[in-house]
Structure formats: C-alpha cells, structure tokens
Amino acid sequence: MVVTDKFNRVSFWAGTGKRYYMKKGFVTKVKALILALTIFSCSFVCNPKEVKAATNLNLNQVYNFSVTYGSPQTFTFQTPATGYIRVEVTVTDVKDGQGKTAYGNLIDCQASVDNKSILYTLIGRNSGTKASTNYAFAPGKTGTINVSADVSVPWTYYYQIKIVNETPENFEAEDNNTADTANKIKTKKVYNGILNEKNEDADWYVFKAPKTGNYRFFFQNMDDARTGDFFYVQGYKKKNKVDSRIPYTSVHAGKGWCKSKKIRLKKGKKYYIRISDSLYDSNAYQIKVKKVK
Ligand SMILES: [Ca+2]
Ligand SMILES: [Ca+2]
Fold first, then answer.
1. Could you tell me the residue range of the domain that residue 31 belongs to?
2. Residue 40, pLDDT score
3. Separation of CA 184 and ligand 1 centre (Å)
4. Which pTM value belongs to this model?
5. What residues have their beta carbon closer than 5 A to ion ligand 2?
6. Which listed ligand is nearest to 203 at the C-alpha?
C-alpha cells in the first residue's frame, strides 16, 4: 500500500514485508506503486516456499497427493480435542518420466507437532504404510508434515496421508505433566493414557476419596509384551510428597493389572499418582482405583 508520511516521503509495503521509502519529489505515487507490484511479484518468483500457504489436513481423512523432485510439500493439522494421533503415509504409485511405473527411489516424510518430531521416514513403492507411533498432545497444537522427493529424476510419486485420531473412553487430557494439572479420576472407571517418548512426558492423576476407607490403585501396561516396554508409577500423599506405600515402581508390558498396596484415605483427601519414564516411545497404559475392605 502506498502512503505519504509527515516527512513528505512516499512509502509502500513490498511482498518481502519491508516498507520502502522514497522522497515524494523523486518518484510519483504511481511509480512507487509500479515498483511495489514489481517487488511483490518478484517475491513470489524468488521465494515460493515462503508465500505458499500449507494445506491444512483434517483428522481421520485419507488424502491423495503427488510430489516431484524440487517441489517439497508442507501440510499442517491441529491436534484433536481428545484421544491420540498417529500419522500414516503410503506411496501408492511411482511413475518415471515416460509415465511407466518405477521402483527404487524413496520420498522423504517428516512430521512434527509443536516442533517435536513424531515421524521421520523414507518411503517407496514397496514400503507399505509407514506410521508414527501413537502420541497424545494437548488439543489445538499445530502439526506439520513435510514430504519431498530428493532424488534428481523426473519421477512423480503418488502418496496418501492419513492422520489417525483414536478416542478411547476416559482418555487423559494433556497437558497433565504436573500435579497442578493432574487429571481427576474416580472409582468404577478405567482411564486410558499414553506416555509419549521417554523422558518427555509425565501424566499426573488425582483421586479425591468420596468416603473414608481403603483404596487400591491399579496400573496396566497396554503395550505388546514383545516390546519389553515398561514405565513407572509413583504415589504422592500431597502434590510434592512421595508416598512409600506406592514407591517408584515399574509396570511392564504383558503383565496385566498391577495393584498397589491398600491406601487408607479420609473422606475428601486427595491422593496423587504420577505415571512417567516409559522405556520406549508411546507407551499406552490404563489406570483405575477401587474401594477395598
Ligand atoms: Ca500423556
Ligand atoms: Ca502428560
């Protein structure tokens, strides 16, 4: 936009985001406008990646795209209100410069949420579907997927993207990484959660005893036993006071429900559980609490 300021200078915005100034006597507004348009159009030609808006993808929808060498593609998505996500990518076909099916070269696919990498893989015609592991994030975070063909051949790679959103019942609500943001749990319900990559996630839960009595907490590692995965649980009498009745204990895949000792609580007393430190990435788990004799 061309304007004249109090110093009698003509200025205009260019596509580069800069404001350019000129003396009014030097150039007319019309000339400034022509120059602005020239620089703006040049910015399109010179920096196509900067001005091309990324395509936003919906969850649980299959998208078909194609990519060629020298034209990397960027997509965005938003993390869901509940449940967990994973990104799935499949190369469905590859054509060479003559339009014949080609094999051998791979495309590069990277996905991240909030600058945390969740997928980095090379995919070809025979790779099948490559998927990230499952991740639980706070709602409304922006995810990014970058796809590129890095080998300098005139091939076209056809591929599919699906961002899967699974929504188990009573699923944890991130961010619950501190006692202050603990998720509330009650008896007679099973709660589901996922620990993202090791040392990057902790899930806090708080239980408020509805009656004075004994309670027992149960934890289950939902990963396949063959993964050898485990995570840790720790009980807290208060937000910052660990309880030796539920010491820092590992919960292993394939072991079913692991139960705590009896915890005696007065009516209205809060008790905290911290689930953390999964050995590998994306450890799914369940937690429940029962009143016992
Ligand atoms: Ca979590
Ligand atoms: Ca968490």
1. 2-50
2. 47
3. 14
4. 0.79
5. 176-177, 201, 203
6. 2
